Amino acid sequence: MPSVKIAIIGGGSPYVPGILYSFAHSGAVLSGSEIALMDVDPSRLPIMTALGRRMMAEAGAGLTVTDTTDLDQALRGANFVLTNFRPGGLEGLRMDEEIPNQYDALGQETTGPGGTFFALRAIPQALRLCRRMEDICPEAWLINYLNPTNFIADAVRRETAVRYIAICDGGGNYLRYFLPELLGLEQADADTDVADVPSAPSAYIRLRARAAGVNHHSWLMELRIGDEDGYPPLLERVRGAEGKGRSFNRKQHEFGIWFLERYGVWPANLSYLYPYFNYDDALADYRAGHSLYRMFMADLPQHWRNFEAMAKGEIPIYLDPSKHHTDVGHGDLAVQVMLAIASNASREFHVNVPNEGSIANLPQDAIVEVPALVDASGVRPLCMGDLPKGVVGLVQSLIAWEELSVDAALSGDKNLVLQAILAHPWVLSIQQAESISNEMFSAHAAHLPQFQG
Description:
Elements: E1 5-9, H1 16-24, E2 34-38, H2 45-59, E3 64-68, H3 71-75, E4 80-83, H4 89-102, H5 113-136, E5 141-144, H6 149-159, E6 163-166, H7 171-183, E7 207-214, E8 217-225, E9 228-229, H8 231-239, H9 250-263, E10 266-267, H10 270-277, H11 279-287, H12 292-311, H13 328-343, E11 347-354, E12 367-375, E13 378-381, H14 389-411, H15 414-423, H16 430-443
Parallel strand pairs: 1-2, 1-4, 2-3, 4-5, 5-6
Antiparallel strand pairs: 7-8, 8-9, 8-10, 11-12, 12-13
Helix pairs in contact: 1-2, 1-13, 2-12, 4-5, 4-12, 4-16, 5-6, 5-14, 6-14, 10-11, 14-15, 15-16
């Protein structure tokens, strides 16, 4: 296979080591290829470049790692462009969470009112990147990790001709890692036949998990273990899990059981869906100290010390699978998507795409998250039928919120921002929405040029 160039925009992000690790262990498919790390902040690039080169050398991967602060240089000759940056930085995350909280609303940076302002900051930067791609590498694929990923997908779909795949390591993609562990099975891809796996152990059973909805708000629509319905053993195992599995949270786990027993479907995003059904408790948890920003601030100092020590060869390369930034599954998803395209080997992933019939009882032009086959020819979403009636109303309201937020980001119309905030289920009054909007506009002013004047 010819070599390719992968430009990682946000190459100094703490997520990058996991991505580089997955590239280093991707086999010979990409041998001879280049990974170009690009970041507007040069301070972290030397660490990431040295760490990446060490990973490639130790794995015998045959990939070159370069770095630059020049976007055009990174894009020149690129076949894949991976977005991996956070507009507004960690301070932007803090404000997205904390300002709504001051007005008795859960902020949440992708699924709450904070998500609107994250989108207002992120969409202009995503579109500027796409316009440079149209000029410099028009045939390249944009692999989008920039959040909120469904908002970005909507804006890119509306405004550009760039080929894109908007992904998230939660939802159905997360279930590919979580469910085999929970069910006591060896991890096997949904599109891998056991007969194709040499000396496959007896536990290596084909597991198919397919979820549908919108990003961070989806449900497990199909679960097959071999040729059998996987839902009965799922219910049995989740009732007896008692703290087993990734990122176990007892209250959220009990909510999942409650939901499965009463709605007949498993929430694919427990932590994101929990607040819609347990709002007061979720807000109290935030105020007790449970937030993404606080987790980042607690973990990142140790991560950076480890990254620097690994880059210098002072400690072995090790990425802690229990930590948010170094859970290798996050990076591995993007790498596997690129491998499927580069090698033209059809693989199934959950992606954010225009609906166009994938979910029958949602609007045709809505951005939905569904399983799709991905290869060199593009993305072919699967038809998932109807969402359960008990959840479709919530999903429809979240689609309206997302679309209004994107309308506002593209137009610079503050009235549309207010409409978007009021469309969110956690905002209950005009006064609350106006207070949140006014303070967020003031706090994020430097990153919202479309609303100036």
